Amino acid sequence: MDKYLVLFTFIGAALALVFAVLTARKVLRFSEGTDLMKKISASIRQGANAYLKRQYKIVFIFFGVMFVILGVMAIAGFLTPYVPFAFLTGGFFSALSGFVGMKIATYSNARTANACREGLNRGLRVAFSAGSVMGFTVVGLGLLDISIWFFLLKFVFHLEPQDITSAMLTFGMGASSMALFARVGGGIFTKAADVGADLVGKVEAGIPEDDPRNPAVIADNVGDNVGDVAGMGADLYESYVGSVISASALGVTAFHNINAMALPMLLAAIGVICSIFGTFLVKTKEGASQKQLLSALSRGTNFSAIIIAIVAFPAVYFVLGKENWTIYFAILAGLVSGVLIGQSTEYFTSDSYKPTRNLAATSETGTATIIIGGLSVGMLSTLMPIIIVAVCVLVAYFVSGGAQSSSMGLYGIALAAVGMLSTLGITLATDAYGPVADNAGGIAEMAGLDKKVRERTDALDSLGNTTAATGKGFAIGSAALTALALMASYIDKVSSIEGGAEKIANLNITNPTVLIGLFIGACLPFVFAALTMNSVGRAAQSVVKEVRRQFKEIAGLMEGKAEADYASCVDLCTKASLREMIMPTVVAVVVPIVVGLILGCSGVVGMLAGATASGFLMAIFMSNSGGAWDNAKKYIESGVHGGKGSDCHKAAVVGDTVGDPFKDTSGPAINILIKLLSMVSIVFAALVINFSIL
Amino acid sequence: MDKYLVLFTFIGAALALVFAVLTARKVLRFSEGTDLMKKISASIRQGANAYLKRQYKIVFIFFGVMFVILGVMAIAGFLTPYVPFAFLTGGFFSALSGFVGMKIATYSNARTANACREGLNRGLRVAFSAGSVMGFTVVGLGLLDISIWFFLLKFVFHLEPQDITSAMLTFGMGASSMALFARVGGGIFTKAADVGADLVGKVEAGIPEDDPRNPAVIADNVGDNVGDVAGMGADLYESYVGSVISASALGVTAFHNINAMALPMLLAAIGVICSIFGTFLVKTKEGASQKQLLSALSRGTNFSAIIIAIVAFPAVYFVLGKENWTIYFAILAGLVSGVLIGQSTEYFTSDSYKPTRNLAATSETGTATIIIGGLSVGMLSTLMPIIIVAVCVLVAYFVSGGAQSSSMGLYGIALAAVGMLSTLGITLATDAYGPVADNAGGIAEMAGLDKKVRERTDALDSLGNTTAATGKGFAIGSAALTALALMASYIDKVSSIEGGAEKIANLNITNPTVLIGLFIGACLPFVFAALTMNSVGRAAQSVVKEVRRQFKEIAGLMEGKAEADYASCVDLCTKASLREMIMPTVVAVVVPIVVGLILGCSGVVGMLAGATASGFLMAIFMSNSGGAWDNAKKYIESGVHGGKGSDCHKAAVVGDTVGDPFKDTSGPAINILIKLLSMVSIVFAALVINFSIL
Questions:
Q1: Cβ neighbours of A513 in B, within 8 Å
Q2: Taking CA A421 as the corner, what is the angle to CA A415 and CA A423, rounded to the nearest 5 degrees?
Q3: What is the sign of the dihedral through the CA atoms of A244, A249, A251 and A256?
Q4: Of B111, B415, B453, B668, which sits most exposed with the smallest number of CB within 10 A?
């Protein structure tokens, strides 16, 4: 049976990639519009290309060093020889996901703007197709990587299941490291450019967003592509692959057979196919309202989710055997929880609901109150997701037989994460089309297109904020579940190594090493958020100074008679973000090893639990505060509380600017952090067991 | 021996109270100054009195309800009959601590202002003496409550040690509930008034701080007394008593004798006596610099700490026996950690160091960047305290023989908290004098005293910010250690109840109930911070509207020809803060019972661990962000980055306003929250064991 399963996974991967290629060709057939539009799009593309090229150079050095370290460890007998290579492929595919996404996004922005000249539906089709290319590239490459490695390790090298999962967890580590670089680097770039452009352009000079007189405007649009697209692509590749391989690893422990290991891959492949069907339902009529647009997108995702829920049942039944069919409910719990977390996110961040509307009202009493208000909206919004995940974990654990065998229960938790991410192909499409629409709006503004065009791209963009919120719900929820699964994998891994079992004999929460590990782990997301926010702050300050300089020194710039030096801002953002992205990633890799060497394996388990709990909370807090500020500003711009240009609006712009690094740099990077910590711990487990102090 | 120990504790209590009375009489001998000063001071006093009276009425209802609930549980056999009464006395003494502190502070503010007319040293003496009254009232009442109950339960009712500690933990719960009301209510009052006064007066109307034309100016000064003084008094009473009784409870489990139980009380009594000596060293010469003032205060606290460190050694040696003398190092670790956390706090929040200076520089690029910067300073500042507490816990655990018996190790952790708080008498004096100096400055301004006077009160006030930072370090550090000790007490308590041992048989961190409890517990400080910040926001908005209304409607107010309606602002703040303080406290009491009834005792343990870790981090983050903004603003006011009135200063004022509820409402309240959660869990343990679902 296992051969058929791997074949099916491979088919899923192939279908996703073929669908992505066909969709890409369809998108490319659209026209890029006027010469000016082509020129603008080309310079955005050029900036994004240049950035990624330089990013990959730095990442290449990191991967080289890690390859050598892992190689030495493999030679010393701490790891199997496949591990260093698995690490490389994980990083490679993760980077490729981001790269492809960025490519298609930068080729679609002008096309979307041009399509919006003809109509809203046409614009939606182009932007959504671009998002689909990215979505299905991510899942396709993920499944491809998994199925190739599985095939090689199982059928060519004939490894034992434990060794297969060990090697596969290492490509997870490669993917996570790459994702962290991409998220942090891209996140710093995009927010430094955004904050810089807004602070000087909008607040000081009083010119509109995306005004071609603003020297940071191209950098801002490049940032959308390298941060919100390339960063997100690498990030979700990591989430997807991480959830599947951690479930596979726990399947081996729970069932001691290859079927339980292959089930997560099968589910992922089913998800891909159902998602492809879903994309065909996304279309809307001309002059569609915001609500109709949203329902067009929801139709696609809901349809996919329902089919997956139906098809998953026979899959579980046949693969695990009829005595284990209740595990199906773990997958269902994951699917439902993802949707619910998304809805909770939407409630707290959409201006259709009370929290964001009330937040907009706090601007009446000034900047300070809207800042306080936004922080408390974010903090309060952690409650529902925590309860949803708590119920999901309990359900997944007990329906999978956790009461009899805890490893079966943990397998159930991991499958819930796979269930949650099974619709990733289409949810990512609805998520990734946002930045494309955003860019299209920028091009419409810069190319001086008709006002109607900008209105249409704005409608698409604003919708993108809501779908992005839902997408973030999936990413954060699955990160928590995957991190718990990886923690369990870590314990399995340690137990399987000689001398390891005694190191984790006492995982009682009152054991001081566990407790201290917990404290340190809980602290990491705070420190990580601080580091990344500082990076954005520093990078933004340099952009602010450069934009101010240009306004002052380039004669005729404000009057539109001279052209700004866009390239210098792009270059500045590139340098700053690459310089700043190194430290956080290195911290994430080094800390678990250091904690392990001092506190031992029980300390590491405590650290992972603490980091998961506090990271989950911080990620939700920061993402939702940022989202609420963003939409409160948009709500005010719609005409309430004095509308654009009023004091309330100015206060809201400050809120939005504070929210930028919250929701697009620090928040999402924390999701990756908590998984990377576990994967590093797993890969270096043997080292820690042999050399730890406590 | 035990009789002598309780006698000694009683003597310590008596000495503290006598010293407080004598100091109070000394303070009252100073003159209140001009008639106008007397009038202003009287109206502040009147407002504070009126507020506390109404607060106590509401608290009275809460305590009545809880008394009935505990009474019913006692009748049903879940609790000993002493418990409901112990609960009441804890609340009573905590309230009394706050009340006395508020009284002396409101009688000393004008006296301090008047003394500053004569000289800085004289001003320092009056303000510091007022602080000392409060400091020694808190520790005196704490020790009195402990020694009376200990005497009654042990020598009159002849209870078993376990039952003694159970009853004593209940008065901890009473003290914590009262402290939470006082901190939250007072914190909302003071910050609503402060934010309201600043936003309209300073930012919109452009009049200086404490200008008599500002209608919220009296409310602002009342707020300092009911929040920073009465709230802090109740809060630290709770910390002090909580650390002693949790150590006593663990002493019983570890040594099964009354000596180990009495040691924490003895150490506290030694601390009181050493602190009294320390106060005599606090004096300075005229025209002393900021640095000399600080060294005058440090001399007092350092001297006290050193003597305690010396005297504690023979105390441990004789009470616990020579085979346990290494436990002394646990106490020392606590003392040293408290100082180190204070220093780390100072580094991150004082404008003598890089973080706050860099933060001030971020104001150059606007409001958004100083907000982002302050948040990241706060988040980054969590790292050092976490490491310090981690090392302290490890040291305290292992020097106390934790490797052999975990209950001895946990006793060591609890003793470290007692060690940290042993200097509370004097550290609280250096902390509580800040609001007195702050008020004195307000009175100097309102009474139109010479500029020199205001400069002197400002010097005292600004120093107060630094000592307050150190004080907060002690409060937060001890809260974490005490919460860990209470968690251990909870496990002891559950094990001692029939049917309880099996409920906590699996405290493994991978047990899903523990894990989910951990997630929920970690979420609580976020939710609690959100609730209290929202409360401040709502209350502040109503003040803003009232102040705006008065500026608009009272003719001649801005020209100084008409008097503002101060009383209406005081009344507004009173009503708003009392309305808002109920919800957070009820949440803190209800949640641990609900979590227990659903997830069972192992879920409660997870919750306590999660709340302690994330609460510690949130409290430090919020306190230090707030402190850094406050001092960055003061640093700018000293003349850098354009000084007062510049755009940088305006940005810094927004930062400071955001920081207000951070550092004076939400942050400190979280310290109380994490202990109250444990105490409620302990008191309701029997209920949970009998009726929980899981």
A1: 394
A2: 125
A3: positive
A4: B453
B283, pLDDT greater than 80: no
Q: Give the Å distances, CA to CA, from B590 to A455, B597, B677.
A: 50, 11, 9
Position A189, amino acid:
F
Residue by residue, DSSP assigns A394-460 as HHHHHHTTTTT-HHHHHHHHHHHHHHHHTTHHHHHHHHHHHHHHHHHHHHHHHTT--HHHHHHHHHH
For residue B654, list chain A residues with Cβ-Cβ distance below 8 A: 366-368, 371, 654
Alpha helices (H) in A321-362, listed in sequence order? 328-349, 354-362
Q: Which residues of A touch B371 (CB under 8 A)?
A: 371, 654, 658
End-to-end CA distance of chain B: 45
Q: Which residues of A touch B386 (CB under 8 A)?
A: 519-520, 522-523
Asked if pLDDT for residue B1 goes beyond 70, the answer is no
Weakest mean pLDDT among A46-50, A460-464, B18-22: A460-464
Residue pairs spanning A and B at CB distance below 8 A:
228
Chain A: give the shortest CA distance to residue B404, in Å. Answer: 12
> What pLDDT score was predicted for residue B139?
95
Chain A CA closest to residue B198: A368
Alpha helices in A256-327 (DSSP H): 258-279, 290-320
Q: Is A508 helix (H, G, I), strand (E, B) or coil?
A: strand
Across the interface, whether the CB atoms of A366 and B487 are under 8 A apart is answered no
Which residue, A281, A339, A278, is CA-closest to A307? A278
E strand residue ranges, A494-617: none
pTM of the predicted protein model = 0.94
Least confident of A314-318, B264-268, B554-558, B646-650: B554-558
Pull the structure tokens for residue B239: 């910390």
Task: Tell me how crowded residue B583 is: count the other CB atoms within 10 A of its CB.
Answer: 14
ipTM: 0.93
Q: List, as one string, the DSSP characters of B44-72.
A: HHHHHHHHHHHHHHHHHHHHHHHHHHHHH
> Which residues, other chains included, contact A533 with Cβ-Cβ below 8 Å and sequence gap of 6+?
A661, A662, A665, A666, B372, B375, B376, B379
Residue B389 contacts residue B378 (beta carbons within 8 Å): no
Distance of alpha carbon B40 from alpha carbon B35, whole angstroms: 9
Structure tokens that stand for B528 in this block: 């609690």
Residue of chain A with shortest Cα separation from B387: A520
Using 50, 70 and 90 to split pLDDT, how confident is the model at B562? confident
Token representation of residue B433: 């004098």
Nearest to A226 by CA among A335, A362, A105: A105
Q: Give the per-residue pLDDT at A1.
A: 60
Helix (H, G, I), strand (E, B) or coil at B508: strand
Residues 6+ apart with CB under 8 A from A282: A124, A128, A296, A297, A299, A300, A430
pLDDT value of position A167? 86
Inspect the interface and report whether the beta carbons of B658 and A372 lie closer than 8 Å: yes
Diameter over CA atoms, chain B: 78
**Residue with token string 């997560």:** A264
Closest CA to A145 of A279, A13, A311: A13
pLDDT digits (tens, 9 = 90+) for B309-333: 999 999 999 999 888 899 999 999 9
* Partner-chain contact A510 B491, CB within 8 Å: yes
pLDDT tens sequence across B337-379: 988 998 899 899 888 899 999 999 999 888 998 999 999 999 9
Query: How far apart are the CA of B613 and the nearest CA of chain A, in angstroms?
Result: 5
Q: Which residues contact B202 (CB under 8 A, 6 or more apart)?
A: B208, B209, B653
CA nearest B113: which of B90, B96, B130, B98?
B130
- Rounded CA gap, B188 and B54, in Å? 15
Q: Give the 3-state secondary structure of residue A602.
A: helix
